# Entry
Amino acid sequence: MSNQERDEIVKLFKLYTKDIFGVAYYVLKDKAMANDIIMDVFEVLLKQDSLDHIDNKKAWLLGTARFLSIAKFKKKIKTQYGLEHNNIQEKFMEIEDSEAPIIKNANEEQLISQLALLKPRQSKCVESYYLKGLSYQQIADKENLSLKEVKSYIQNGKRNLRIKLEKLVKL
# Structure
């Protein structure tokens, strides 16, 4: 890699650090992990032989940030809920409503990536209920919500998860 390309990487770092942080924080909801993603993206960029093959550098950087963020989120979820050897679909098997078929048929990666894209409260309530096995009351106490709010976040989260998974399947 030439000095000119290294200078360009420094310029890109200065220009897009906040954008990359925003993408990573949106997925991870964790500032420290989002900052790690910034470094990871530029490590990937530095490993490139040349920058000539990248036409739209901003899109490439943000796409790489999103990919790395989702990968880190998957790893975080698996370790956080002890799912290294378990299948996430099993945790969702108890869903017995209209969302059930699409959610049960989704693969683990699809579930985790789409769960990360739900609104924060919906994601947290769905994760707590289905992955951690907490009751509505436990979630309400933990999140300082009413029982009605918890039920609503879970129902809306399941519906939005189903919609996101359906869109993913159509692609």
Notes: The first helix runs from residue 3 to 28.
